[in-house]
User: Fold Prephenate dehydratase domain-containing protein from Leersia perrieri.
Amino acid sequence: MAYTSSSSSSSLHLLPNTKLSSSSSSSRPPSFLPIAKINGVNGHSKKSKSPNGKPHINGDGAKKGPVNGKSKAATRQVNGKNNDRIHLSVSTGGGVGQDGSGLRVAFQGAPGAYSEFAAKTALPGCETVPCRAFADALSAVAGGGVDRAILPVESTMEGTALRNYDLLLRHDLVVVQEINLFVHYCLLAMPGVRAAEVRRVISHPMALAHCGRALARLGVDREPVEDTAGAVEMLRSNRLLDTAAIASPRAADLYGLDVLAHGLQDESWNVTRFLLLSKPPATTTTTPAMPVDADAKTSMVVAHRGGSMMVVLKVLSAFSSRNINLTKLEVINNDGGGNGGAGAATAGTPVMILDTSARGAPTLRAFPHVLYVDCEGASHDPRVLDAIKEIEKFAVFVRVLGCYAADSNVYDLQ
Ligand SMILES: O=C(O)C(=O)C[C@]1(C(=O)O)C=C[C@@H](O)C=C1
Assistant:
């Protein structure tokens, strides 16, 4: 569901300092941080109602035990570098702590989903709010029911999650933080079930796709469900003894299941990038939230008339002539010319972008040709502002999606 790719989309995305190779067992970014201090992801001691009526987890107090006799060395740091993280995201004031305490963050899935871990990594003190679908999570933050939503936007194995970009662009939301999570898949089963007894594996479609070769070797049926933790929940509540789920080792802990296999993903290097989204700050001042010299990133969408390659060259020139590095460039052409459909639900359907720049109510506009661009630098950095001004001369429309602290770390759940 979330990740799509087609001939109408081509991308250049680099996790900074991250080497990606097809036989990537040796590829590691310079800093690979475990989620050591996450509270709340190991249990659900406090339950309350989420916007969709499901209970949500809030705080720790969990059963913290070894997985299959293996101690979870949760604080192990792989690359020996101790990068203390600085949160530079938009401040909401009013009782919100630096660690996100006081903030409610919507995520898609059941407690224990990777998205929840990403939220807890970004804002360790936050309260996470499960939602049935990504669209519900985004509506919750846009409608003010929660303070933030977390959205996976790309993975090293699948590229850009175009459908999630579609969702993001339809809302008046801004990116306030990025987080890269190492996705380590495990095969989980009810206590006592042996691998040979498993006939069927259920999980999020992305997890099933990422583990395709391993599942083929196991010779089991595959069934997609809403999310990885939802699969585990289903296994547990229906006491399924012929079925296994693909999910994280933390989900095994949370639901008290056995881990039959670790590292099921076909590529050993499997990182998903998540964005933390917020409503735009309701401020009348133009004071930037982040110093110009901070290690910042700016994300934007550029709509244009077509002729992608020439437009790409002009965009590259606008940034390179100012010595600005790009960290992502995705080219989408949904012009109905037989190569459409990448980001949209139907082939040839243009990308719908909420135009928040015009006076009056924001309007949804349709664009067949768009670029998703992330650059280094703050959106109010004069060089970035100049580059955007230059792009606006030949583009139809530019929307800055957010300016946030660049974080090239990759966080690990193990
Ligand atoms: O199902 C989950 O646990 C999720 O958080 C969703 C999701 C995704 O949509 O890509 C997140 C990361 C993993 O790649 C697999 C699934």
